[in-house]
Structure formats: C-alpha cells, structure tokens
Amino acid sequence: MQAPRLRRVAVLVLEGAKPLDVGIPAQVFTTRASMPYEVRVCGAAPGPVTGGDGLSYHVADGLDALTWADIVFIPGYRFPDRDDPPPAVVDALVTAHGLGARLAAISTGAFALAATGLLDGRRATTHWHYTRALAARHPLVRVDENVLFVDEGSVLTSAGAASGIDLCLHILRGDLGVAASNHTARRLVAAPYRSGGQAQYVPRSVPEPLGERFAATREWALRRLDAALTLTVLARHAAVSPRTFSRRFVEDTGYTPMQWVMRARIDAARELLERSERSVEQIAADVGLGTGANLRTHFQRILGTTPSEYRRTFTQGG
To answer: What is residue 25's three-state secondary structure?
Structure first.
C-alpha cells in the first residue's frame, strides 16, 4: 500500500477568534507520523492576534499560508455580523480557492467565507444563534439552520464548536477513509460519526436521560451489526415503543433507525475493505448484509462506487 500524499492545512486566525474553534482543526490534523497532514496556523499577518474569550494568539505565518494550503480552516470569531474581515483576507481566501484549496468554516467563520461570495447560491450553516444574521447579511447564501455541517465540495461550513469536530472527521473520512477517521475519533474521545443532516439545536420535551439511553442503544447496535437489527429489536433495547424510538432517533441522528443501521454496516464494510484482505462475500457476512451482491447494491447506492473500486483507492494511496 502506498503512503497517502501529504496534505497541507492552514488554520486562519481572525481577530476575536474562538479558542475551541481554532484548536479543533489544529488538533485533529496535528502534524504527526500517523497523519499525512502538515498544519500551519496563520493570521492576516505574522505576530499577535487578539482572540475572543480572554485569549490571544501569536501566529508564525501570514496570508501566504493560504496559497500554500490544500485545506483552509476559518475558525469562528466574535461579532461576525458587524464587519467583514479585512479585504486582504477576503482576497486571499478567494485566491486560495482558485488555486484548488478547500475552504472549511467552523461556526461563525461562515461569515468570513460568505464575504468571499463563494457561498452565493450554495447551502451553508453556522452556529444556530447566528443563522438569521448570516441570511440577512448574505441573502444569496441558502442558510440551513437545522444541520451540523454542510459539504458543498470545495466549500464547507459547520455549526458550533463541537460540530467542527464532526466536520473535521467528515473531511478525514473522505481523505483517508473510515479507519483513519475512527482512529482519530478514538484519540479525541469523540463520536466516530454524526451525519451532517443531524439537527444542531432541537428543543427537548423528553428528559435528557432518554438521549443517553438512545446513545447506549447505538453503541450496542454497532457491536452487533452482523445480527438482525430491526426497529423492534432496537426499540426493545432502548425500552421505548418503536414509534417513540423512530421519532426520537431521527431527531438525534438525522436518519431513520434502518437508514442508520445500513450506513453503519456500510461504514464497517469500508473499514474492512481498507484494512483487511477479506473477500467481499466475507465482509458482507461480517457486517450483516448477507451476500456480496447485497453489499455491492447498497455500497453503490450510498457511496456511488463498488467495494472493489473503493478498496483499490485505499490500497493505492490517497
């Protein structure tokens, strides 16, 4: 297996930058032997940057890091609805995008990304507190307030700080595969995967312990993907009615229970394709899909490729 190519990550720290938003991509893509990424933290110019929440930063690089990068993260910052970033920052983001970099905004970093015009006509999200402000300030952006993150290919946006982790893991999955993403999630003690379609803010009329019970059921199911996992079986484990389980499950994950089970099985198959030499028929049995034909059908429907092509991608290097 060839080593994945090195990818260059720039984290752009703007005035008022939120500490968690800065730290998430810097830590997820941290430069280490097991991760084919090089990370640089930059600002409008090298030197001190006044941050938010009582912290400040000293960055080694200026805007030149954006034209160097393959991925540019724009962490959230305070008072994003007051003024756009300096023109030099906006121009540098546009230039980086034109050179092929992906631009990924965390939380209110979406305002800086929207200032480039690159989100016009596209879906985007930001922290739920600022979704209306983003829509008002940038009316050409199709703001979706009910998701954790949005992937529009070369431009990506996420909601609050925690969903920045989801976005980073989503990018890792695309770059390096499920195994690498799950390894990083375990290192961060984070959920391996939450769908972008999951609601970022849902008022609860049900006591929170029920949410914990549902999380326990998901963990239980992930250890039994080769078994029969019907709605009735899952609801019985959560000790609620199938109707309640189904309704709350969609609120918690963005998927119906059976959609979630199928995607969990496909993810398990992806990891086995990446890390083992087991046949497609063996993997189908391991993840509860029965036959290779069944695995191929669902793999094509969900991922738009075949198991063999997917394995070839990750054995030839990313």
So the answer is: helix
Q: How far is CA 91 from the centre of its chain?
A: 26
Longest dimension (CA), the chain: 59
Distance CA 44, CA 46 (A): 7
Coil vs helix vs strand at 165:
helix
Closest CA relative to residue 116, chosen from 19, 26, 12, 16: 12
pTM: 0.74
pLDDT tens for the 318 residues of the chain, in order: 456 678 999 999 999 999 999 999 998 998 676 788 999 999 999 999 998 878 889 999 999 999 999 999 999 999 999 989 999 999 999 999 999 999 999 999 999 999 999 999 999 999 988 999 999 999 999 999 888 889 999 999 998 878 888 899 999 988 888 888 888 887 776 766 555 444 444 333 333 445 577 888 988 999 999 999 999 999 999 999 999 999 988 877 778 999 999 989 998 999 899 888 999 999 999 999 999 999 999 999 888 889 998 888 776 655
The one-letter code for the residue type at 92 is A
Between CA 157 and CA 73 the distance in angstroms is 10
Which residues on adjacent β-strands are paired with residue 35? 32
Q: How far apart are the first and last CA of the chain?
A: 10
Query: How far apart are the C-alpha atoms of 57 and 164, rounded to whole Å?
Result: 20
The single residue listed with the structure tokens 């893991």 is: 169
How far is Cα 313 from Cα 274, in angstroms, rounded to an integer? 9
Residue type, 188: L
- Whether the CB-CB separation of 199 and 146 falls below 8 Å is answered with yes
Name 42's bridge partners. Answer: 12, 61
